[in-house]
Amino acid sequence: MFEAIILGSMFEAIILGILQGLTEFIPVSSSAHLILIPWFFNWQGIVNSLSFNVALHFGTLLALLLYFRTDWIELIKSVQQKDSILWKIVIGSFPAAFAGILLHDWIENNRSPVLIAFTLCLVSVFMILAERNYHKIERTGMDKINVKTALLIGIAQAFALIPGVSRSGITIVAGLTRGMNRAEAARFSFLLGTPIVAGASLLEVNNIMNKGHLDFDIFIAGITVSACVGYIVIKYLIVFLQKYSLRPFAYYRFLLAFVIIISLWISK
């Protein structure tokens, strides 16, 4: 019986690891999927917790660091340059860092499907509106980002702490509204997200350790799978955004919100 429970939890961890790797970078909200799948299938235990969610984010953090390793080396070398992108990443990281510290308990206690359905739809509208004006202005790359743009994208990233928003989705939209092209907005979004995901992972480590006995095999499985899948997704999403718009992701978000609402209605 105990072995069956462990195997079941391992299976759930792997599924959630795959989902995290896919949805952390695709703008459909990883937090929404990590909350909804256990809710749909009534998965209980450690896989249905903020601690496990953060552990999966650590896996995608590894994917970010590995994929952008050359970029980070160059950014670190440019630390003494006043107009370095590195300093704009630092500035853009402050809003989400402050919000994460202040709202940690609120985030833990507000993981309802109703909230997720609402935020899925709201950000989808923002995506469609941003795409409507995409070809009306000349688009720039990441090298043209100024402090104001970095701060505004950083504020957008802070709103991604709300389940269902999607960190990549809202920051890419913010980048588009500031005149960036899709691929470069995504690239800056991923670089900007690296310090925040790293900080959240470090803050949660202490909470995880204080829980006493944990099935570390389950955590390691989830982290490994999310890292591998995430690396592949980063590569192909940037290629996708060089040619195609955010609209397919917006439509998927609307569909997912509809499924949530129907599921809630049926369960009454």
Structure notes:
- It contains twelve helices and no strands.
- With 268 residues, the chain is mainly alpha-helical.
- The chain has one domain (2-267).
Short synopsis of the structure:
This protein has helices at 2-23, 30-41, 50-67, 69-77, 85-102, 104-109, 113-132, 147-159, 167-177, 182-209, 216-241, 247-267. The chain is mainly α and 268 residues long.
Number of strands: 0
Describe the biggest sheet?
none
Strand content: under 5%
Secondary-structure element sequence? HHHHHHHHHHHH
Q: How many angstroms separate the termini? A: 32 Å
Q: Count of helical segments?
A: 12
The class by helix and strand makeup works out as mainly alpha
Shape: globular
Gyration radius (Cα, Å) is 18 Å
Question: Helix amount, in percent?
Answer: over 70%
Average pLDDT, all residues = 86
Whole-number count of domains: 1
Weakly predicted, low-confidence segments? 1-7
